[in-house]
C-alpha cells in the first residue's frame, strides 16, 4: 500500500525508484529494513514533491513544448502548423538581424564578463590587503550590484551617458571633446559593457571569501623561500582561487548571454541594432511580432550555445582548476 | 615605521578615490532628483543640487494616467512579499528532503535541480507564456507568483548547505523521543535554518522587486503594474519632460532595496560568500 502513494508523482519517477529498490530487496536480509526504506521513499518524495511538480510542469514540459513549437509557425492565435526546419533555415540563411544580434551578444559577453571578473578579483585583492575600514569599502563597492538589477539604474544610465548627461558634462569641464555615446553605434555597446562591469560586487564578495580561505602559512612559507608578492600571487593565490573562478565564470557567462533589461531600457537595441542583444531580439520576435515558433527556435539555439560553453568550461577545468587534496 | 604609514595613506587614498568613482552614479541620481527639473542637465555632473526641490517627489508620485505611485508600490510589495513567502517555505521543505532523507532516486533529482538552477528563465519564457495564456492567467499576478511556490533551486541549494552543518545527533535524538520527519523538520530544523532562510528571503525580495521581464510580458493593465514596469513607462524618453520627477521616482524605487541592505547586510554577504565557495 505504502509505495502506491508515490504514484501520483510523474511517470519517469517509477523507473528510477524501482531499480534501487530491487537491489535493496536482494541485498537486505531483514525484511524490517525494506519497510523502513519504503517509508523513507514516501517521506522523501513528499518533501521534494513541490520541486518535482514545478520541475515537470514549469521546466521539462515547457522545454519540450518549446522544442515542438520551434518546428511550427505558431502565432499565438491560430493553430501551430508543422513547418519542419523552416525556422532554423530562415534564421541561419535569411535573417541578418539574427546574425547581428548573435554578434552583438558574443561581443558583449566576451568583453563584459572578463572585465567584471578581472575587476572583481583586483578589488578583492586590494580589499584583502587593507586592514582598516574594509567593511565600509566592501559595503560601498557592493552597492552598485545590489541595485544594479533595477530599472531605475538602467534609466539613470541612459541619462548618465546621454548627450547632456554627466559623463559629457565632466568631459566638457576638463576641456575634452564630448561624444554622443548612445547615438554612436560604435560606443553604445560600451555603455552597456561598463554598466555590466560596474556591478562587480557579488563576484568580488565571492573572491574575497575565497582569499580569506587561503591559509596564511602558505604565504609565510613561500616568503621564507624568497618569493615576492607577484610570484606569490601566481603560485599561491591564483591556483587556490581557481575553483571559485570556475563557479563565477560559468554563472557570469550565462548571465552575460541572457542580458535583456539594459539593452531594452538604455538603448532599446539601437542605434542601428548595435546593441540588439539576443534576448531582446527574441523578445521582439515573440511579443511584438508574435512569431512564437521562430522565437522558440531562437531559444533552443541559445540553449545549445550555453550548454556548449558550460561543457567547454567544465571539460577544460581539470587543466586549470586546482582542487586541494580532498574534501575535509 | 614612517614608510609603513606612507604606504597606508597611499593605499587608502587609492581606495577612497576608486570607491567614490564607483558610487558616483548613484549619488548623481539622488542629487539630480533634488535639482530643479529645468536645471538637471545644466552642469549635469554636479552633485550639489541648487536647493532641495522636494516638489519633484510630489510631482513624480502622481504617476501617469491618473494612477499614482502608491498603487505601483503597493503592487510591487504584494507581488514581492507573497512570492518571497512562497519561495522560502517551499525551498526549505525541499531542502530538508534533499539534505536529510535517504530515498531512491535522490541523486538524479538533485542533479535535475542543479541543472534547473543553471537554466535561464528566458529559455522557458515563451512556452510558459503560452501555457499561462491558455489558462487565462494573462494580466493577473498568478504567472509571477505561483511558480515560486515550487521552490527556487538557488535557495534550495543554499538552505541544504546550511542544514548539512546541523549535527545529525539532533535529528536522531528527536527520533528517539518519537518525532517523525515532519515534526523534526518543523521543531528542530526550521528554527535552526532561520539565517539561511533570511538570506534567501532577502534575495527573493530583491529579485521580485527588480523583476522587469515577468511583469512586462504578463501584465497589460497599468493599474496592476509594479514599480519596475511603471518606471519604464514613466521615463519613456519620448514623453519625459519632468526630469526631476523621473529621477525622484527612480531613486524612490530603490529605497526599499537600500533599507533591507543596510539592516540585513550580514545575511547577504554571508549568503553570497558561501554560495560561491561550497559548490
- CATH architectural grouping of the largest domain in chain B: Orthogonal Bundle
Q: What portion of residues of chain A is helical? A: over 70%
* Class from helix and strand fractions of chain B: mainly alpha
The rounded distance between the terminal residues' Cα atoms of chain A is: 42 Å
The CATH topology of the largest domain in chain A corresponds to MetI-like fold
> Class of the largest domain in chain B, according to the CATH hierarchy?
Mainly Alpha
Percent range for helical residues of chain B? over 70%
Q: Give the count of helical stretches of chain A.
A: 14
Order of helices and strands of chain A: HHHHHHHHHHHHHH
- Unreliable stretches of chain B (pLDDT < 50, length at least 5) are none
Beta-strand content bin of chain B: under 5%
What's the tally of helices of chain B?
A: 14
- Domains of chain A (count): 2
Highest CATH level, the class of the largest domain in chain A? Mainly Alpha
Name the CATH superfamily classification of the largest domain in chain A: MetI-like
Largest interface: A-B, 101 and 92 residues
Beta-strand level of the residues of chain A, as a percent range?
under 5%
Largest sheet of chain B: none
Order of helices and strands of chain B: HHHHHHHHHHHHHH
Please write out the topology.
The complex is a heterodimer of chains A (328) and B (279).
Chain A: H1 12-27, H2 31-69, H3 86-94, H4 96-129, H5 134-148, H6 151-160, H7 166-173, H8 185-198, H9 201-212, H10 216-224, H11 229-257, H12 261-267, H13 278-287, H14 292-320
Chain B: H1 2-32, H2 55-61, H3 69-100, H4 106-118, H5 122-134, H6 142-145, H7 153-164, H8 168-176, H9 181-192, H10 194-210, H11 213-218, H12 227-234, H13 243-253, H14 255-278
Helix pairs in contact in B: 2-13, 3-7, 3-10, 8-9, 10-14, 12-13
